[in-house]
Design a protein that fits this description.
Elements lengths: L2 H13 L5 H13 L5 H9 L4 H5 L1 E4 L2 E4 L12 H10 L5 E5 L5 H9 L4 E6 L2 H9 L3 E4 L16 E4 L4 E2 L8 H6 L8 E3 L3
Parallel strand pairs: 3-4, 3-6, 4-5, 7-8
Antiparallel strand pairs: 1-2
């Protein structure tokens, strides 16, 4: 990466209105140098609103590099507090379940911090299950707790979930790039009917 390439990427992203163009430019340049694609193509995808994590293929979450495949909900930084709290509550030999796991970020942190604990994740989306498995997570396909062993009933020490939280009728209030790119099927934080 040359200084000219970095400056061009930074200025292009800054003109595009990105909040942290320097960090995004660096991430895109590194991804390009790792063979993800030509830098101009990566910048163009970002300018169209595609999530940075989908373009570069990962996100940093609680210090871990978590793979995020296109079509899978990108873990948000504010969810790191949930993961840290879950780690604090999980006994070394305990059992943890992460529902609606998405990329498996929370479950990956639990497994990393409590390697002798049993950590299982679930998601209704096959793309998310595959992505979570690529992050070393024991992920099961199914809705919420349906795929869990009945023998675990009453024995789970920690259960986490980032369930759909934006009512469908309020989706129009979200930023346009989120509306254009984030998944909206059941099991993801976008598009949940008001109950």
């Amino acid at each position: 990466m040359t200084n000219e390439e970095r400056e061009h990427a930074l200025q292009t992203l800054a003109r595009g209105g990105f909040v942290a163009p320097d960090a995004e430019a660096d991430a895109l340049l590194i991804a390009s140098s790792e063979g993800v694609g030509p830098i101009e193509d990566l910048i163009a995808r970002r300018l169209l609103g595609e999530p940075l994590a989908w373009i570069i293929g990962w996100v940093r979450f609680c210090g871990l590099r978590v793979r995020v495949d296109p079509g899978v909900f990108v873990p948000r930084p504010h969810t790191e507090a949930l993961a840290r709290r879950a780690v604090a509550l999980l006994p070394p030999l305990g059992i943890a379940v992460d529902l609606c796991t998405g990329s498996g970020a929370v479950a990956a942190v639990l497994g990393s911090e409590r390697p002798r604990a049993a950590v299982v994740a679930t998601d209704i989306d096959p793309l998310a299950v595959t992505c979570a498995r690529s992050n070393g997570v024991r992920a099961l396909a199914g809705d919420l707790d349906e795929p869990l062993r009945s023998s675990w009933r009453g024995r789970i020490d920690v259960m986490t979930a980032v369930v759909p939280y934006v009512p469908t009728e309020e989706l129009h209030l979200l930023p346009s790039d989120v509306l254009s790119h984030e998944p909206r099927r059941s099991g993801h934080p976008l598009a949940t009917p008001r109950r």
